[in-house]
């Protein structure tokens, strides 16, 4: 048996794995000892890796759909078909009639290739990925306040924090090794404060839990700041030295009273004062936040409100502090860094700046597109309107994971051509005209970038099943077929080196450097050859940071007589996003029943519903059938569902009302009605039809 060092393929913590390989198969994993983030541990998902990538569950040959049914095809035929369909779509609708959705689960090398393919081969900026519906408000919000949207500090900083503030993140479930580290910090005396409308496990263990009304984040953060300014608890020296003038913010907050904040958020005044005092007086406060901040139509403003609080108290730029968006997927930080966003090239070089366009035109030996690109949700809208005709989806399952499932399915049905690169036949792949089998992380070399900007090596441990190929190689072969020779790399390292040479944030990185220890944190360049564990120590990318006056924005849909419950969505520890990988593990499947609607016992009692009652849940966009689970994790009036289960597709209900700045849809709040099913009726389960393309008839 060999043990090959790698990095976990699930969440953005980026734990170090050893892949146990026997007779050409990954038979299990072990934690890497001495890894700076995972410290010799893994969570249940990491331990289940071998099921998630098992060759028995995988696509092995290209598939082409004919008369509504897939048949096996050669790579030659499949690639030729994709090349000619993309060219036909562009001839009919122009360069921007096509788009690429890249993969936050694939490597930096794959993502670099995806955006280069979009820009250099297709000549469009229509390239995006699921960061759009994850931390895009962090990218836009922190760009405005600091100039950089990444986690400012490192995971190890938690060990030095005196206070840990967690806002809208369920850390023990979703970033398990960070959650464990926070609890260890609390055990040695750090204070733990959680702001969440649900009683999460971490909230139950915290010193203080502010169980705010769902969606009242700006009201709460403004209220805390108002108390801080009123009492003179702000860090005046830091504000004077490091920030722009804050007079407009002070004036804006002067109109607010703690009583108003309490009424708007449901938090007693005394609790507000206590948290404001503790946070502002702490010698080192580490602030972490997640989807409870970003997934709102006010997502960008929510992020800026977090940033205001951190800056006003000077809790940034030192070890143990910082504003720390907990990035979600194993390589979502990397997919953003590599420029799989319509408005930036690798390293956040702006796509609308002529100098940047010229730089890449010269490096890639072809003109660059000049029109602004569409976001992923923008591509869905364009497809519905007939403006987008062909779409390439590399490892993403928007039919399950994007809001308003019926609309997504209608949009994809309206395309002339859809191609999916996947490990398995997901709900989205079922809708495609061509499906290409992609190599999984254990079958390729490359790098993943974790949530703390740490670029880490993954290594090929086994051969890909059947004829499956690596994403960047597929893109290179397609490029050649479409007349572009500049993507014919011979190794992942060659892709990385090209990227590093063009990206100032990565210019001092190489595979040799990454191999030496446990990777390097960007920026890693001539100024910081050893990388950067803490950002913003001396100055901000903007020079001085900015604090913005902000006003509470309510969710687009509130409860009313027709739809009386607030509906929200979140995650379970044992499953991961669309579930296409974790649900292959019988061990993980055993842990969590699929498709439950979580509801407070008082609500259930009021309506005479019992635990496991079968119900129909309806929003303005769709409906589904599930069973209730009674839990006091949720306050009365709010119901919640995890989103991993295709047989209980909560994104049939969710609202695509969007943040105007980041285009983030409001996945955390909409309104629903609940009706009990007749006694004895079993909830309809679309999984019964699992292998049938659900929307093939649309
Ligand atoms: N086990 C597991 N781990 C994962 C994932 C997974 O699917 N499963 N997915 C990965 C990905 S892609 C991501 S992005 C991360 C996401 O990790 P998190 O950010 O933790 O994601 P969620 O559980 O969706 O939401 C976090 C919390 O926001 C709270 N919340 C809802 N509304 C509000 C509000 O108005 N204010 C506040 N303050 N809180 C609110 C919810 O109650 C929930 O506890 O997890 C990653 N890790
Ligand atoms: N209601 C609701 N919806 C949500 C959210 C929510 O909180 N509530 N959260 C949103 C968030 S934060 C996110 S990030 C999205 C995630 O949404 P998705 O990105 O759609 O989900 P994932 O399960 O992370 O991964 C998608 C696919 O990547 C494939 N894959 C893995 N590795 C590779 C590879 O190397 N190459 C290729 N080609 N494919 C690969 C897997 O097989 C999997 O099917 O969901 C969003 N949707
Ligand atoms: S915490 Fe995240 S990275 Fe670590 S083992 Fe679990 S899923 Fe993998
Ligand atoms: Mo995410």
Level-1 CATH class name of the largest domain: Alpha Beta
Based on the coordinates given, report the CATH architecture of the largest domain: 3-Layer(aba) Sandwich
Main sheet makeup: 7 strands, mixed
Structural class, judged by helices and strands?
alpha/beta
Mean pLDDT score, rounded?
A: 96
Strand order of the largest sheet: 5-4-17-16-15-6-7
Low-confidence stretches: 688-698
Using only CA atoms, what is the Rg? Answer: 24 Å
Number of strands: 26
- Count of separate structural domains: 4
InterPro entries: Asp_de-COase-like_dom_sf, Formate_Dh-H_N, Formate_DH_asu, MoPterin_dinucl-bd_dom, Mopterin_OxRdtase, Mopterin_OxRdtase_4Fe-4S_dom, Mopterin_OxRdtase_prok_CS, Prok_molybdopt-oxidoreductase
Organism: Pseudomonas pohangensis
GO molecular function, one term: NADH dehydrogenase activity
GO biological process, one term: formate metabolic process
Spell out the blueprint of helices and strands.
Blueprint: E1 2-7, E2 16-22, E3 25-31, H1 44-47, H2 49-52, E4 63-66, E5 69-72, H3 75-93, E6 98-101, H4 108-121, E7 127-128, H5 136-145, E8 163-167, H6 171-174, H7 176-187, E9 191-195, H8 201-205, E10 208-210, H9 217-230, H10 236-242, H11 247-254, H12 258-265, H13 269-281, E11 285-289, H14 291-294, H15 299-312, E12 323-325, H16 332-337, E13 344-345, E14 349-350, H17 354-364, H18 376-384, E15 390-394, H19 398-401, H20 405-414, E16 417-422, H21 427-430, E17 434-437, E18 446-449, E19 454-458, H22 471-481, H23 492-502, H24 511-516, E20 520-521, E21 565-570, H25 586-591, E22 596-599, H26 601-607, E23 614-618, E24 623-630, E25 638-642, E26 670-676
Parallel strand pairs: 6-7, 6-15, 8-9, 8-11, 9-10, 11-12, 15-16, 16-17, 21-25, 22-24
Antiparallel strand pairs: 1-2, 2-3, 4-5, 4-17, 13-14, 18-19, 19-20, 21-26, 23-24, 23-26
Residues 134, 328-329 line the site of molybdenum atom.
